[in-house]
Amino acid sequence: MLGLNGTSFQPDTLQLTGIPGVQTGQAWVALIFCILYLISIIGNLSILALVIQESALHQPMYYFLSMLSLNDLGVSLSTLPTVLATFCFNYRHVGFDACLVQMFFIHTFSFMESGILLAMSFDRFVAICDPLRYATVLTNSRILAMGLGILTKSFTTLFPFPFLVKRLPFCKGNVLHHSYCLHPDLMKVACGDVHVNNIYGLFVVIFTYGVDSTFILLSYALILRLSISSGEGRWKALNTCVSHICAVLVYYVPMIGVSVMHRAAKHASPIIHTLMSSIYLFVPPVLNPIIYSVKTQPIREGIVTLFSSKRE
C-alpha cells in the first residue's frame, strides 16, 4: 500500500525476501543464521570481556581489537531483528522509516570496520618499525581520538543516505531481495532521478574503502621495506601481523566480490547477490574472534582461562 508523502509516493512498509527462490528449507536457513549470530555475539563479547578484565592486555593492539569486536557486534545486532523475523517467524515486512534506520546502521558499522582495520595497520607499523616509541606514539588519548575520528567520519559520511533515499518516489514495488535493508537494494525499487544517490554513494565508497585500503597496503609495504633487511626478519615481522592480515582479507575480499557482482553481474541470479551480501555482512563478525583467538597467544590463553574459571 502506497501512501502520499509530500510529492513522492513511498510504501508504508517494505517486503523482505530473505533468500530469493529458497522457499523450502527455511528452517535450516534459520538454524544457520542463529548459529552464526551465536558465534559472533559470544566470540566478540568474550574478547571485550577479556581485554577489560586482563590488565596485561591494556595495550594499544588490544584496544584496537576491542574496537573491532564492538563494531562487529554492531554489525550483527543491526541485521539481527529483520533476519530472525524473516526466517524464524516468517514476518517479512518492515516499516519504511525503520528500514532506512537499519540501512544507516548497517552501512555505518561496515564503513567503521574499514577505518578500524586501517588504525590496526598503523598500530602494527609503529610496533614493528619504531618499537621504542610505540608507547609514546599510541597513547590512550590518541587511541581514543582515533576511535572517535573513525566514528565521526563514518557517521557524517553516511548521515545523508536516509534523506537521499527518503526524497525518492517508489514506483517499482516494495519487494527487497534481502532479509535486511541495504542502499543498493532500495535503489532497485526507487524511481525518479537516482543520480545523486549513485554519485554520492560512489564518492563515499572511494573516500572510505579506497583510501583505507590504500593506506593499509602502504603500511605493509613500509613494514617490509623499512623494518627488516633480511628475508627471515621480514617473515618474523609479517608473522606478528598475521591476525590483522587475515582480518583484512576476511573483510575486503567479500566486499570486493559484492562490488564486482553489483556492477559487472547485474543480471546474475538474485540468490547470488543475496549470498554474496550475506557473506560480506556475516562472515567477518564470525571469523574475526576466531582468527584472533587462534593466532594471538595472549587472547587464546585468556579465553581459555576465562571459560575455565566460569566452569569452576
UniProtKB/TrEMBL annotation:
Question: What Gene3D superfamilies is this protein classified in?
Answer: Rhodopsin 7-helix transmembrane proteins
Its GO biological process terms? cellular response to lipid
Q: Does the keyword Transmembrane apply?
A: yes
Q: Which UniProt keywords apply?
A: Cell membrane, G-protein coupled receptor, Membrane, Olfaction, Receptor, Sensory transduction, Transducer, Transmembrane, Transmembrane helix
Compartmental location:
Cell membrane; Membrane
Fetch the CDD domains from UniProt.
7tmA_OR51-like
Protein family according to the UniProt entry: Belongs to the G-protein coupled receptor 1 family.
Q: What is this protein called?
A: Olfactory receptor
